[in-house]
């Protein structure tokens, strides 16, 4: 059976500050997708939240970028915004950057990751959802789990993976059009690394198997400051990764997250901290962070989802969470100096620009060098 897995997420308001949506918002989102399932638009759906972002996982047969599915997501976020406003929550409607829906949520604020697949007899997959980070948070773990035998032992042990994978990478600084490049491992390994080392500029959009062309992963690529022209909150991306058989195993896909890699996000979206893999429906706390990622495992069969397995809810990840907190505290000890805060290219969307302009007017020139 041909089905589409669509994950669309948005921050439409939260309790405390940027901490978590209210129960009433989550209930409303559930009602919306349940009624779309009853009406036959969806075959199944699940609602989760990660920090202050609500993610809709929708299963259907309409293909990617379908206007009805995107409208359902947009309308759901309009409804949760209404609740957030009625409850006086913080940042109500934060990620709805346009007034009226125009066919697709891309470029309007919400993040989306979608894959159309021919269902395998067993179709396991993972939905990753992040808060307080940009889409570049996936560069390291997605590249590593598909391309590096250190994490993906299947590249050595499973002959069906030997042909490697193709990465579609987007230059997210180009706002005129989707500027993408398609590169393969193992052939283009160093070229891919050259791009992915700059996760605020180049991000993985999708991954396919070289041998079959089958799509293994999709990630959201939206950058809110590129849409709004100023800082309006962090992108807080989502990704779908199919697992097992000719794809890496579920454990191989989780393996790179044990590093608790440093990424840009956290408080005001402007600090480098270590990613913390968290359980489903975790909240945000220390320094409006740390940056968190949740991982929900499912199987889908004839368009219907199994119950979820909460992949970071396992004692191993308690150790990683502690390590992540230590790494975050280590860089936070440096406050605003140097690499602990974002570079100017990211900060230029914030109020620091006005500060610098004001200070520039107060600078004086001394010992001018005569050139003629
Ligand atoms: P199976 O042999 O059940 O496919 O599992 C192998 C595996 O993925 C272990 O990581
Ligand atoms: P969100 O993007 O998760 O709303 O966070 C915004 C922020 O600035 C937190 O300090
Ligand atoms: Mg928020
Ligand atoms: Mg958020």
From TrEMBL:
Active site: residue positions: 11 (proton acceptor), 231 (proton donor/acceptor), 234 (schiff-base intermediate with dhap)
Comment, domains: Consists of a single catalytic domain, but remodels its active-site architecture via a large structural change to exhibit dual activities.
Described function: Catalyzes two subsequent steps in gluconeogenesis: the aldol condensation of dihydroxyacetone phosphate (DHAP) and glyceraldehyde-3-phosphate (GA3P) to fructose-1,6-bisphosphate (FBP), and the dephosphorylation of FBP to fructose-6-phosphate (F6P).
Regions crossing the membrane: none
Family the entry assigns: Belongs to the FBP aldolase/phosphatase family.
Positions contributing to Mg(2+) 1 binding: 11, 18, 52, 94
Residues that hold dihydroxyacetone phosphate according to the record: 18, 132, 268, 288
Gene Ontology biological process terms in this record: gluconeogenesis
Complexes and interactors: Homooctamer; dimer of tetramers.
Cofactor(s) it depends on: Mg(2+)
Catalysed reactions listed for this entry: beta-D-fructose 1,6-bisphosphate = D-glyceraldehyde 3-phosphate + dihydroxyacetone phosphate; beta-D-fructose 1,6-bisphosphate + H2O = beta-D-fructose 6-phosphate + phosphate
Known pathway: Carbohydrate biosynthesis; gluconeogenesis
Superkingdom classification of source: Bacteria
SUPFAM superfamilies: Sulfolobus fructose-1,6-bisphosphatase-like
Binding-site list for Mg(2+) 3: 234-236
Protein name stated in the entry: Fructose-1,6-bisphosphate aldolase/phosphatase
Molecular function via GO: fructose 1,6-bisphosphate 1-phosphatase activity; fructose-bisphosphate aldolase activity; magnesium ion binding
Record's keyword terms, sorted: Carbohydrate metabolism, Gluconeogenesis, Hydrolase, Lyase, Magnesium, Metal-binding, Schiff base
PANTHER family per record: FRUCTOSE-1,6-BISPHOSPHATE ALDOLASE/PHOSPHATASE, FRUCTOSE-1,6-BISPHOSPHATE ALDOLASE_PHOSPHATASE
Residue positions binding beta-D-fructose 1,6-bisphosphate: 18, 90, 103-104, 132, 244-245, 268, 288, 349
Chain sites annotated for binding Mg(2+) 2: 52-53, 131, 236
Residue positions binding Mg(2+) 4: 235
EC identifiers of the protein: 3.1.3.11, 4.1.2.13
């Amino acid at each position: 059976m041909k089905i589409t897995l669509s994950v669309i997420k948005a921050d439409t308001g939260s309790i405390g500050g940027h901490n978590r949506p209210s129960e009433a918002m989550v209930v409303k989102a559930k009602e919306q997708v349940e009624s779309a399932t009853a009406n036959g638009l969806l075959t199944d759906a699940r609602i989760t939240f990660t920090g202050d972002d609500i993610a809709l996982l929708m299963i259907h047969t309409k293909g990617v970028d379908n206007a009805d599915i995107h409208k359902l997501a947009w309308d759901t976020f309009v409804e949760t915004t209404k609740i957030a406003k009625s409850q006086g929550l913080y940042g109500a409607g934060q990620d709805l950057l346009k007034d009226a829906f125009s066919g697709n949520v891309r470029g309007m604020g919400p993040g989306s990751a979608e894959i159309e697949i021919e269902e395998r007899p067993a179709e396991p997959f993972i939905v990753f959802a992040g808060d307080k980070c940009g889409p570049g948070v996936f560069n390291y773990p997605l590249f590593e789990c598909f391309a590096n035998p250190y994490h993906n032992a299947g590249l050595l042990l499973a002959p069906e993976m030997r042909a490697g994978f193709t990465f579609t990478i987007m230059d997210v600084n180009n706002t005129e059009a989707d500027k993408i490049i398609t590169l393969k491992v193992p052939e283009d390994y160093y070229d891919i690394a050259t791009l992915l080392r700059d996760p605020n500029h180049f991000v993985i959009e999708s991954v396919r198997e070289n041998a079959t062309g089958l799509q293994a992963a999709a990630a959201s690529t939206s950058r809110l400051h590129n849409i709004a022209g100023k800082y309006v909150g962090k992108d807080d991306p989502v990704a779908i990764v199919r697992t097992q058989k000719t794809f890496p195993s579920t454990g191989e896909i989780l393996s790179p997250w044990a590093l608790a890699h440093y990424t840009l996000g956290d408080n005001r979206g402007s600090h480098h901290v270590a990613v913390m893999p968290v359980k489903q429906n975790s909240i945000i706390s220390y320094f409006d962070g740390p940056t968190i990622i949740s991982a929900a495992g499912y199987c889908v069969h004839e368009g219907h989802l199994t119950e979820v397995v909460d992949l970071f809810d396992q004692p191993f990840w308690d150790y990683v969470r502690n390590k992540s907190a230590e790494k975050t505290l280590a860089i936070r000890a440096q406050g605003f100096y140097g690499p602990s805060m974002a570079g100017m290219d990211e900060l230029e969307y914030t109020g620091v620009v006005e500060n610098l302009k004001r200070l520039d007017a107060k600078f004086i020139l001394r010992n001018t060098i005569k050139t003629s």
